[in-house]
Amino acid sequence: MRTALLQSSGRPGSVVENLKVLDEAAGRAAAAGAGLLVAPEMFLTGYAIGDDIARLAESADGDSADAVAETAGRHGVAIAYGYPERAGEDVFNSVQLISADGSRLANYRKTHLFGCFERDHFTPGDQPVVQAELDGLRIGLMICYDVEFPENVRAHALAGTDLLLVPTAQMHPFQFVAESVVPVRAFENQMYVAYVNRVGQEGEFEFVGLSTLAGPDGIARARAGRAEELVFADADPVSLAASREVNPYLQDRRPGLYGSLI
Questions:
Q1: Where does the CN hydrolase domain start and stop, copy by copy (predicted)?
Q2: pTM above the 0.85 mark?
Q3: Catalytic annotation, residues
Q4: pLDDT in tens, 41-64
């Protein structure tokens, strides 16, 4: 499945403008033959917007979700996008996957919050593995810091995830995560990992870009630079199956030895 990675910080603070950016990117993705467009963490509203996070938060089936569904259906491309999710008194850092026909496939709430900023504004999620089926691939959802915990990604591998989508807000000086950690996660868990970042200065944070889609061989199929761009790469189930045949990490595990990990 051809996958488009939207490396952009959009227009922080403006949901209307970010929906326009997403619509334009969906059109370009569809024209290039992509079946899936992935946007960064908190793309819908912006990341470093302080108390506006709570003000702009919406339910998973709110007006913005309807607008994204309309965009997906009109362009015929599935869309995964980050947003602040309102559920009662709680606000979660979430990502939602919407199919190419506009139906809501899955919604994931970030389980590992990074730093004081996130802990001050969000409630952590409690469901580590969220998946959906899309065009013959089992899609998994995760957000930014979550991928830095090997247990998290291994749980997805054991649940059969083929393509792990990781919208992120990766900031300086942690660019080694995009450059090194993400390809290793893809290799050690025998899956594709799409890591899609914000870019540029936003409040106190400098986002480093470097979005990538890494394959099960640990090689980046695509890698963005440090500017806004839309990059493309393929997640091929045939190549994935072949890679899993010759890399038996999951078969060679000895779970009985790992009790001390918990």
A1: 1-237
A2: yes
A3: 41, 110, 144
A4: 999 999 999 999 999 999 999 999
